[in-house]
Amino acid sequence: MFSLNGSSFTNNSLSGVSRCLTQSSRRGVSGPMVVAAAVNSNGKPGDRNVSVLVENSMKESAAAPVEKEIKSTVTGGVGDVYGEDSATEDQSITPWTLSVASGYSLLRNPHYNKGLAFSEKERDSHYLRGLLPPVVVNHDLQVKKMMNNLRQYEVPLQRYIAMMDIQEMNERLYYKLLMDNVEELLPIVYTPTVGEACQKYGSIFRRPQGLFISLKEKGKINEVLKNWPERKIQVIVVTDGERILGLGDLGCQGMGIPVGKLSLYTALGGIRPSACLPITIDVGTNNEDLLNDEFYIGLRQRRARGQEYAELFDEFMYAVKQNYGEKVLIQFEDFANHNAFDLLAKYGTSHLVFNDDIQGTASVVLAGLMASLQLVGGTLAEHTFLFLGAGEAGTGIAELIALEMSKQTGIPLEETRKKIWMLDSKGLIVNSRMESLQHFKRPWAHEHEPVKELVNAVKSIKPTVLIGSSGAGRTFTKEVVQALATFNEKPIIFALSNPTSQSECTAEEAYSWSEGRAIFASGSPFAPVEYNGKVYASGQANNAYIFPGFGLGLIISGAIRVHDDMLLAASEALAEQVSQENFEKGLIYPPFTNIRKISANIAAKVAAKAYELGLATRLPEPANLVAYAESCMYSPAYRSYR
Ligand SMILES: NC(=O)C1=CN([C@@H]2O[C@H](COP(=O)(O)OP(=O)(O)OC[C@H]3O[C@@H](n4cnc5c(N)ncnc54)[C@H](OP(=O)(O)O)[C@@H]3O)[C@@H](O)[C@H]2O)C=CC1
Ligand SMILES: CC(=O)C(=O)O
Ligand SMILES: [Mg+2]
C-alpha cells in the first residue's frame, strides 16, 4: 500500500492495461484518475516483471527517486523509469500514461461518465466544455428519459441490447435504472430475455463484457486475471456455458449469464460493480449449431472433458485465490450436472464456493414452501413432494427440504427423504433403477414399481407439492394439473424451468386447470392472470431472491466457507418477508420492488449464521447486522468531482 497525495493504492493497482484511481490532478483537484499502460517493456508480451518495476517505481516516486530499482536496466536518460530510453530499437517499450480522466476520455469511461448530468463546475474542471450540449439534467431525469426510450422497443432483445449499451456507457445510470424499475427491467437483463441474448450473443456482440478464459489460456490464467482492470474482487460468477438456463449448451455465449447475475448482485444485493467479475471458461461446445455458426464467438471445437477440463479448472481456481485471496466468493452458474456436483464437492473445502443452481435454488424454493404453509396449513413433514427433473435444481431443493424436515422433527435425514419423489427423463426414480443412477439421484430412489409418465406418478404418489425442474417446457399438462387438483384443495405448483419457453406450465394454465385453486410460482415471471373474474398474481421462484443477499452476508461477515445452515437461514429470512397483503393476493414471495431491504435481511441472517458457526473473519461481529448490511450496500448516486 502506498499513498499519493492522500489517496491510497495497493501495489497491484497499477498492473494491467487500464486502472482507474482517484488522486490529485495536475491542476490540484481530485477527480477520476485513469492510469493506462501496456505492461510490456524490454521484453516479451505479458512480462509481469515490467509492471512490478513500474509499480515499484510509482511507489518510490511518492517518496524518493527510483534509481535503485532500475539501476541494472537503465542505460538511457536520467530517470528512465519505464525503460523507454534504455530500449534498443528492436525492443518494445511501455507506453505509459497517467492522467486524470477528463474531456473526451471521461465521457467514454463508464465508471465515471455522467453524461448530461455533469455540473457546470465539473464541465469546467474536467475539460468537458463543448463536448456536451449546454443543458444539465439530473439523474432522475436521465432515468425517466432512458425508460421512455427503452419502452419504445417492442422486442425484448432490443431492450436488452439497449441496457447493455447503457451499462457500457454510464454504469451508475444503468444501476439506477435497474434499481428504480426492477420489476420492469429484471425480465430484460435476466430471465427470460438473457436466455435469447445468450443464444444470439455472437450476433449481438458489441463490446466484450467479463473475462473469457479458454483452453488457449492454459498455463497463463494468472496472467489473464491480471488483465482485468480491477484488483479488489469480491464476487466471481463463473460458467462454462454447458447448461444455460433450460437452453442447453451455449458454449462461450453463456457469458450473458455471469454478466446478468452480477448485475443483480449489484442492483439487488448492493455489491459494488467494480468488485464483481463475470467469467466464462471456454472449453469448447457440443452445440453443432454454434460450431457451424459463422458468428460464434467461442472456441470452435468440441468440449474438453476429463483431465484436460480438470486441469484448466484447477489452474483457474488457484489463480483466483492467488489474485483475490481466501474470501473471494466464487459462484458456479449453469454448469452441466456432471461437472456441477463434482466442482462443488471438490472446491467446497478449499474455496468460498456456492453453486447457485443447486444451493441458491434450494434456498428460494424452501422459502416459498415455508410461505405456502401459511396458505395451505400443515408442517413441511406433513407434505409429499414430487419433482419432475432430478438434476442440480431438483436434487438440490430436495436435499434442503429433507434437511429442514429433519431439523424440525428430529427424524433422520434418510427417513425425511422418503417424503420426496423424483422423476427424470426415464421415469420415476425407484430402487430397481439404483445401479444405473447418477450418484446425486440415489438418495431419492424409493421402493415403488416403475412409472414412466408424470401423470401416472401423480396419481400414484398423490403429492401435495409438484415441482418442475426439468428444463422441459409444457410438461405439466392439463391432465397432470387436473389430477393434482383432484386430491388437493390447494395444490402447490412450482414451474421452475427457465426461460419462459421451458416453463413446465404457464400461470394461466396452472390457475385455469386447477379452477383457480393452485398456489403457483415460476422461475420466469408471468403477468397476472384473470380467471372467472378474479385476478391471480403469481410469484417468481427464482434464485435471484437469494444469491444477492446471500453473497452480501458472506462478504460482510468475511465468511470463508458456505454451510447448509446458511442456506436455511436465507430461506427463513426470505419467507419471513412475505406480508399478509402478499398472501391475500396468493403470493408466496414478496415483490421484487423491496429487494434491497429483503437482501439486507437475508444478508444479516446469513452473516449471523456465519458468526455462530465460527466461519466469519470480520471481527468483532457488528451489533446490528441489518443496519451494517445496509450501510455496506452500493448506491448508484453520482459522486461529485472536484
Ligand atoms: N427458478 C430457478 O431459480 C432455477 C431454475 N432452474 C431451471 O431448472 C431447469 C433444470 O436445471 P438443472 O437442474 O440444473 O438441470 P439438469 O440438467 O441438472 O437436470 C434436468 C433434469 O430434468 C430431467 N428431464 C429433462 N427432460 C425431462 C423430461 N422431459 N421429463 C422428465 N425429466 C426430464 C433430466 O433427466 P435425466 O437426468 O434423465 O437427463 C434431469 O434429471 C432449467 O430449466 C433451469 O433453468 C435452475 C436453477 C434455478
Ligand atoms: C435461474 C437460474 O439460475 C437458472 O435457470 O439456471
Ligand atoms: Mg442458473
UniProtKB/TrEMBL annotation:
Identify the domain of life.
Eukaryota
Could you tell me the keywords of this UniProt record?
A: Metal-binding, NAD, NADP, Oxidoreductase
Task: Relay the cofactor remark from the entry.
Answer: Divalent metal cations. Prefers magnesium or manganese.
Binding-site list for (S)-malate: 243, 498, 542
Q: Which residues form the Malic enzyme NAD-binding domain?
A: 358-611
Q: Which InterPro entries match?
A: Aminoacid_DH-like_N_sf (IPR046346), Malic_enzyme_CS (IPR015884), Malic_N_dom (IPR012301), Malic_N_dom_sf (IPR037062), Malic_NAD-bd (IPR012302), Malic_OxRdtase (IPR001891), NAD(P)-bd_dom_sf (IPR036291)
One Gene Ontology cellular component term attached to this UniProt record is: chloroplast
| Annotated ranges, domain Malic enzyme N-terminal | 167-348
Where are the active-site residues found?
190 (proton donor), 261 (proton acceptor)
Give the GO biological process terms: malate metabolic process
Identify a single GO molecular function assigned to this protein: malate dehydrogenase (decarboxylating) (NADP+) activity
Coiled-coil annotation: which residues? none
Q: Which cofactor does it need?
A: Mg(2+); Mn(2+)
Q: What does the UniProt function comment say about this protein?
A: The chloroplastic ME isoform decarboxylates malate shuttled from neighboring mesophyll cells. The CO(2) released is then refixed by ribulose-bisphosphate carboxylase. This pathway eliminates the photorespiratory loss of CO(2) that occurs in most plants.
| Matching NCBIfam families | PRK13529.1
Name this polypeptide is given:
Malic enzyme
Organism, per UniProt?
Nicotiana sylvestris (Wood tobacco)
Q: Gene behind this chain? A: LOC104223107
